[in-house]
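Section 4.2 – Deliverable D4.2 (structural model, holo form)

The reporting period included a commitment to supply a predicted holo structure for the target in complex with adenosine-5'-triphosphate. Inputs used:
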Amino acid sequence: MTESEPSSQPSKKALKKAAKEAEKAKKKAERSALLEQQELELRQQEVVDDSAAENYGEGDNFYPQTAIDKWIQLRNIEEHEDRECVFRVAVANTRSQSAKLAFLTLSQGLESIQMVVAETPEYVSRPMIKFAVNIPPESICTVFGVVKRTSEKIQSTTIQDFELQARRIYIVSKAQLPLPLQPADSEGPLPLEDKAPTTEVSQAQPLVSLNTRLNNRVLDLRAKLNHRIFLIKDGVDSLFQEFLRSHGFIRIHTPKIMGAPTEGGSSVFRLDYFHRNAYLAQSPQLAKQMAIQSRFPRVMEIGPVFRAENSNTVRHLTEFTGLDMEMEILEDYHEVVDILEKLMLFIFNGLNERYGKETELIRKVYAVEPFKLPAVSNIPRIEFSEGVKMLREAGETLDDYDDLTTPQEKKLGQLILEKYNSDFYTLDQFPTAVRPFYTMPSKKNKSYSNSFDMFMRGQEILSGAQRIHIHDLLIERIREHEMSPDSDGLRDYVEGFKFGCPPHGGGGIGLERIVQFYLGLPNIRMTSLFPRDPSRVLP
Ligand code: ATP
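Output (structure tokens):
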């Protein structure tokens, strides 16, 4: 049997079917062309009929020079009652009530206000209302509106006693939908593994993971909660400077690119520096001491600190902001402890005075207790050996000269809170063995050192000490730490002590940790604009 060749000619039936389909497609095309034409005519008609066509649109060149209050900040809205004003805002959401009425929620910084877009013969047409309702959320607009006092408080916006009556609305930058993250979702708490969020906000909003938030950080940061965090962070930064300047400190800037590791090699990032190795500074420690050697009696620094530690915890970053200070000592290293305790209280009280409202709003989202503070003279200052005793009495087993583990630090914080009613305290006279080579041993017992840490809510935020200023003792201690005083990283620093250097001491504080523990936030990454950790270097 031979196989028959497939015919190259289509059958009659197939031809008929194809003709039928072609006819169908033609009719469909004609119909949609007709519809398009009708829609176009309708739109043209609308434009012709639209008395308000000039009062809305897209682009950034619609600024009629009328006698109005220009570029008003929402926080100053009260001063403009019954006046027509121009604002630059972001559209948070839009709501259509009818063809004649719509509402927009507009936001600017930490403020938000309602705009009523109601049909009027002079300013607002129905096409304009349709346009307003279709503005994608997060678009940036220039809006003109009359500021009106409301008869009832508006609950959904921060400005509750005023609203805007729309006159003109222009989209300056249109947001493209869909957004990968709704900024409003970042107003709520993080989904926590160990602590169920209990606030009203959490019930109303979906819980978005920290990773999703950080992957879309620009949208995440728009949340007012985040703006408040960074306002407070800026507050800490400026209070730190204010206090120390008023106590005779000047701000210095030490290099962050180093020719050699200075404090041991394991936690240092190496980089390629014109075909040789260089390193990112793990702290400004040696450089700020060299400023003391250079006869600057009191110095401070605010700068990045890099740690190549694979610490995946809620309080470690690989890049954080160090608040550092170093000062001459006249009689006793407690001069440094005194200044640092006063500095921390100045920061806490300053935050309380300047950002009380913002702090309360953030703590409410995370159901955090207020930060308990004693008067300056009553800050608990406890010797390490006493802390060990308290922990043992509470059932912990630990050796005299061991460093505290993180759970032990937290436990001691709890014991001190119960005993002294303070969320802030100093632990003094650490064992010499757990501190760096430059730490001055104590005169009365060399197993302890003139060094201290400060804690907030039971977690370390500050490390400080008197430093060794005696050349030969320093060399001895460097060798005990199995390092070489002649190494590139140490040579110039060590030599500086040969030429006369006063006793001195200082401390380093993590800016992000202060913000985290003051507010009681669950993760340090929330306090860093674009956080860096072992698994995150983007965005
Ligand atoms: P920890 O024991 O918590 O890792 P540390 O003893 O290494 O801290 P220091 O080198 O003494 O810290 O640094 C001084 C301060 O800098 C700390 O008290 C802390 O506030 C902050 N800090 C240190 N390491 C980090 C980090 N990886 N991320 C954020 N802040 C840090």
